[in-house]
């Protein structure tokens, strides 16, 4: 579970560290619920005081004298950050975000003195939970004065799956829910036209997401019949139309609920080989049932049986070569079709993003004009 969470969220520091951050990093999907849990964390902190990393300032080449922790979710549609708990020597933390800028300042709680290398170190526990989840945040460690190094004991990151964005659909460059909250806080200073325009933009964004969902669903539905037709053509060319139809019908009846899904290539090969083995067994039984009248006839029967066996082996090898060739051809056609569909989807998504960006610029412009009019009045 920890490795999976690490693939969802990257942890990086602007200062140099003596141990990998993963040694003190944990991920949670339940959040911080009660003070009892907080007391348990404090007790485990006292027992495991040697498990910590030391961060050092490298010099003037860094962009800021303060150490900054960067948390970034690689796949925001799967996991986003909605809180964290940091135990370090820094009492004050400043939280920012690339999209919204400054978010909040967190003041930690003193946990007490912990002996480390014959020195008494003061550690603070800083907890923060967000109403909205974020794909990335930066945490600046303040209140360290002019110190060029400090210790970090543990880092717990709360991740949650976003509920407002369907899986597989891109999130826009701004948060509609946060924009609505900001406008509500402005109160009467926002004009009615701006509020109406915000409602229109919200409906527009929802319609775009529904359109993308429909396109993706239609694309998935269109892929299945094509694959089924391709496999049917392969089996028809090898076994003949009647045998192919009987095998396909048997497969669909066996799958039950999954009858609408494409037939697996392995199942098709297994069915073909089974049919070949059955035909071969039938021919051998016919040859064995013949009663020769003399030794010469018996010898002739043995020769004919060996010849037929060799012919069956040749037929089987040729059959496998034909199957391999057909499979390679179908795989190439499917890859080309999938690549073309992906390109079309990427173009449509880019066009949608551009339209949303234009609408956002217009909203910000209208809000700026409305605030200017209120200030003049």
UniProtKB/TrEMBL annotation:
Output the InterPro entries linked to this UniProt entry: PAAT-like (IPR028043)
- Pfam hit, one: PAAT-like
Protein name as annotated: Uncharacterized protein
* Organism of derivation: Lymnaea stagnalis
Q: What is the lineage of its organism?
A: Eukaryota, Metazoa, Spiralia, Lophotrochozoa, Mollusca
């Amino acid at each position: 579970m920890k490795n999976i969470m690490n693939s969802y969220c990257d942890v990086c520091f602007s200062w140099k560290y003596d141990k990998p951050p993963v040694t003190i990093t944990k991920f949670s999907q339940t959040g911080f619920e009660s003070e009892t849990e907080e007391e348990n964390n404090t007790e485990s902190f006292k027992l495991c005081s040697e498990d910590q990393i030391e961060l050092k300032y490298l010099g003037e080449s860094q962009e800021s004298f303060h150490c900054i922790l960067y948390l970034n979710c690689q796949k925001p549609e799967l996991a986003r950050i909605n809180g964290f708990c940091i135990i370090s020597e820094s009492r004050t933390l400043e939280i920012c975000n690339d999209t919204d800028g400054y978010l909040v300042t967190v003041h930690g709680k003193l946990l007490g003195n912990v002996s480390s290398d014959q020195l008494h170190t003061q550690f603070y526990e800083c907890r923060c939970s967000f109403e909205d989840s974020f794909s990335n945040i930066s945490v600046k460690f303040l209140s360290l004065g002019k110190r060029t190094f400090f210790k970090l004991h543990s880092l717990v990151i709360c991740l949650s799956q976003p509920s407002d964005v369907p899986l597989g659909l891109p999130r826009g460059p701004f948060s509609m829910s946060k924009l609505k909250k900001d406008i509500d806080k402005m109160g009467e200073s926002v004009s009615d036209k701006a509020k109406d325009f915000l409602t229109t933009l919200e409906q527009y964004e929802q319609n775009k997401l529904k359109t993308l969902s429909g396109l993706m669903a239609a694309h998935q539905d269109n892929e299945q019949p094509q694959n089924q037709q391709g496999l049917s053509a392969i089996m028809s060319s090898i076994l003949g139309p009647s045998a192919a139809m009987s095998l396909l019908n048997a497969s669909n009846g066996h799958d039950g609920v999954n009858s609408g899904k494409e037939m697996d290539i392995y199942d098709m090969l297994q069915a073909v080989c089974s049919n070949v083995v059955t035909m071969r067994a039938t021919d051998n039984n016919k040859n064995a049932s013949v009663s020769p009248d003399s030794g010469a006839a018996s010898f002739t029967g043995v020769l004919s049986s060996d010849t037929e066996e060799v012919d069956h082996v040749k037929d089987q090898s040729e059959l496998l070569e034909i199957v391999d060739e057909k499979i390679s051809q179908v795989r190439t056609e499917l890859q080309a079709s999938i690549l073309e569909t992906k390109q079309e989807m990427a173009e449509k998504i880019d066009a949608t993003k551009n339209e949303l960006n234009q609408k956002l610029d217009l909203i910000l412009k209208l809000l700026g004009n409305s605030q200017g009019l209120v200030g003049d009045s």
